[in-house]
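Archive entry: two folds, one per protein. Generate the first.
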Amino acid sequence: MDNVDLQVIRTVRDWRHAGHRVVLATVTRTWGSAPRPVGSVVAVRGDGLVAGSVSGGCIEDDLIERVRATSIAADRPEKVCYGVTGDEAARFGLPCGGSLELVVETITARSAIDDLLARLEQGGRVTRTLHLADGRVELAAVAGEPPPLRLSEATLVTTLGPGFRLLLIGAGQLTHYLATMALALDYEVLICDPREEYAATWAVAGSTRVSGMPDDAVAALRPDAHTAVVALTHDPKLDDLALMEALQSEAFYVGAIGSQANQRKRCERLKQHFGLDDAALARLHGPVGLKNGARTPPEIAVSILAEMTAVRYGYRILPPLPPPGPTAVEAGCAV
C-alpha cells in the first residue's frame, strides 16, 4: 500500500463520519498495461466526489455514474471488469489494450474503516479480509513478509500498511529529516540509538524507537529484501557492527554516512576485523546518497532517499557529473 492509498482510506473515514454514502473500489487483477498496480484503491462519494485513482479518469467517470445511479449493491461487494475488449479499452482510456478487474464495495459499519485506519496510523501492517457474500470485514496484524493480494470466490484479502522498512542507526538532526521523508514514502521507520542524549530528543511521529545496541537491533529485525539499513552516527563503535550484520542479510539497501576517506577506512575495518569479503563490501553505499551536491541535512536526506528509490526499483545509478568549475572571470581569465 502506498501513501496515496492511505490518504484514500482517511478520506473514506471522513466522508463516512460526515454521513455520506461511500463506495470503495480495489484493483484485484490487471492484464496488459494498466495505469495502477494491483491493490490500488479509489473511493467515490454519493454525490460524485472522488479520492484516489485506478485509471486516467475514464473508469472513475463510469464508477461515478454507477454510484449516482445507486446501481452498486449496498449489501454485498461485486466484481467489475474494464477494458476486456479493444473497444472498451479505448473507451476507458486503458493503454495498449490493457484491462483490469475491480472489487467494488459500499462502505458500512461492517467495513471496519475506523479500526483499520487506527492500526495503519500506528505504523502497523494489516490484512483486511472482505467477505464477498455480505461485505463483512475482518482485520489481522501482519508479522513478517506481507502476503500478496488474494481473491477467491468467497473473500478478497489485501495487505495494507508500509511495505518497506527502514532502520536508521543514530537519532541526530539528519535522522529527523530522513525519517520524516521516509514516512511520507510509506516506509515503516525504526530508529536505534543507545546514546540517551540523542534518543531523548527523538520526536518524529509515526516512527518507532528500538532499544539496545544497533547490531542487536539489526539482528532482531532480520532484514529481508524489503528492508533498508542506514548508519548515521559517524561513530565506528555503533555503525560498524550494525553494518556487519546488515551486509550479511538480505537487506536491499545498506548505507553509511561519511566522506570518501571515511568510507575507505570503514571498509578496511569491516574487512580486517570482521572478515567481510569484497562482495559484501560492494553492497555498502558510502558515502551514502546520490551525489547531487547536497549540503544541508534535508538535502542529504533527499539524496539518500533518491538513491534508495533507484536501488529499490533496479535502476542503474550513473556516476555523478563533475561539480561546475569556476567561470572564466572567477578563474582570472579574460573574456
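Generate the second and append.
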Amino acid sequence: MSADTSSTSTDIPTRGADAGDRVDGRTPEQLREVRITRGWLDHAEGSALIEFGRTRVLCAATFTEGVPRWKKGSGSGWVTAEYAMLPRSTNTRSSRESVKGKIGGRTHEISRLIGRSLRAVIDLEALGENTIQLDCDVLQADGGTRTAAITGAYVALADAVAWGKKHTAIPSARTVLTDTVSAVSVGIIDGRPLLDLEYREDVTAGTDMNVVVTGGGDFVEVQGTAEGAPFDRHELNALLDLAVRGCGELAEIQRSVLEQEPGRPAEGR
C-alpha cells in the first residue's frame, strides 16, 4: 500500500532575537528548532521525518485490515508502536538489537510509551477492526528522541487514518482521532527549569522529565526522575507548566503541517 500524500514541512527557527544563555543560545522556555517533513516515505500510509534540533526521527505508519487475535470479533481496532535507534545515531556505534537477538529494556519501554500516547487520542471503536503500526527509527540522537518520536508519530498516524478512510470501509465522516498529542522533555539545571533538553543539558540535569500532553492540555504521561537532590512541588509545577507550553507550540506545528495542501510546503514561523 502506498501513501497518497505529498511532502510538506514546517520549520520553526530558533528565535535569535530572544537569545539566552543556554549551551545553544536558547532561553529557558524555548524549544529547539523544530521541523516536520510529512510524507517523507513513498510507500507508507503515513510518514513524517521530525527534527528537534539535531535529533532526527523517522516515523512511518502502516495501515492493515484486521487486528491481533485477541481483538478479533471485538469491533475495535489497535494502534501499536516500535522504536529503534540506528547503529550510528550516536557518537559511537551501537549493535543492532535484531542482530544481538534481544530487544533492550529501554527500547521496550519507549515503544510502549509511544503506543500508549497515540492510543490516548484515537477512538479504537471508530477505527474498526484495523491495525495501525508505527515504526519510529532514530536517525540521529541529541536528546529527546522519545518525545520527538511521539510528536512525529502523531502526524504519521493522522495520515494513516486519512488513508484508511479513503481506501477502506471506514466512513469518511467518522471521527477517529479525538485530539492531537505531542511530547517534550523538561529538566532542572543549576536550579533553573529548562524546556526541551539537548544532550549536553540532558546529561547534566539534576531533574529530567518527559511529558506527554494532548492538544487539549491534558496529560497522558509524566516521567520524572531526580538524579541528585529531590525536586519539590514548586519545581514540579514549574516543569509541568513549561512542558504544557512547549507541547502547545508543538501541537500548533502539527496542525500547520497537516493543514497544508498536498505538495505545498508550510511556511516557517
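Annotation attached to the second fold: Residues 233-259 form the longest helix (27 residues). Residues 1-6, 12-17, 262-269 have pLDDT under 50 and may be disordered.
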